[in-house]
Amino acid sequence: MKVDPQRRQELLATLPHLRAFAISLSGSVDRADDLVQETLARALTNIERFTPGTCLQAWLFTILRNLFHTEFRRRRREVEDPDGMMANRLAVLPNQSGRVEFEELRSALAKLPHDQREALLLVSAEGFSYEEAARITGAQLGTIKSRVNRARTRLAELMQVDDPEDLGPDRLIRAVLHAPAPGR
Q: Domain 97-177 classified CATH 1.10.10.10?
């Protein structure tokens, strides 16, 4: 891909700043260099999306930041297993009961008032804190906490669950019925 000389100079001038930002995000010089390289590759591939007259450095920083956060989310779900020990212990449970429980959950969720269902799904299924859920819905913090609590209680009644441990291994069902982690 051909990049005009002035734009090329602008790109090169941002490299030290991009690298410093990448190091501060990742905490690793090697990872930072990979992030900068990937940022430049994406920028060059999508250079036609850059709006002339706007700040190229800000555009590049946005690309780098988005790459870092995408990778962070991906790595959070991954587990290092260099010797394969964890992979050898993995087992797949049958999913029939999970599907039945999921359908029961969907049916029970549909019976909740909209405001309770919304609060419960934001906090439990989507992982937002109570404060974030309050901002998203425009409700007060105490209102969100109350809605989530009432929704959990009603769901347990509708699904005839005395103890969430009675449910199968489905993460979504457990997340919806369990109380949030400390700090939520």
A: yes
Number of alpha carbons in the 13 Å side-chain half-sphere of residue 66: 11
Q: Comparing C-alpha atoms, which of 180, 176, 181, 173 is closest to residue 116?
A: 176
Token pair belonging to 142? 């105490």
Domain 5-77 in CATH 1.25.40.10: no
Helices then strands, counting H and E runs in the chain, come out as: 9, 0
- Report the predicted TM-score, pTM, of the whole model to 2 decimal places: 0.43
Name the helix (H) or strand (E) containing 179: none
Domain residue extents for the chain: 5-77, 97-177
pLDDT, one tens digit per residue, over 70-109 is: 887 777 666 677 777 766 676 665 555 667 777 887 888 8
Q: Tell me: the pLDDT tens digits for 119-150?
A: 888 888 778 889 988 988 899 999 999 999 99
Residue 181 carries which DSSP code? P
Q: b/e string for 116-125 if b means 16 or more Cβ within 10 A?
A: bbbbbbbbbe
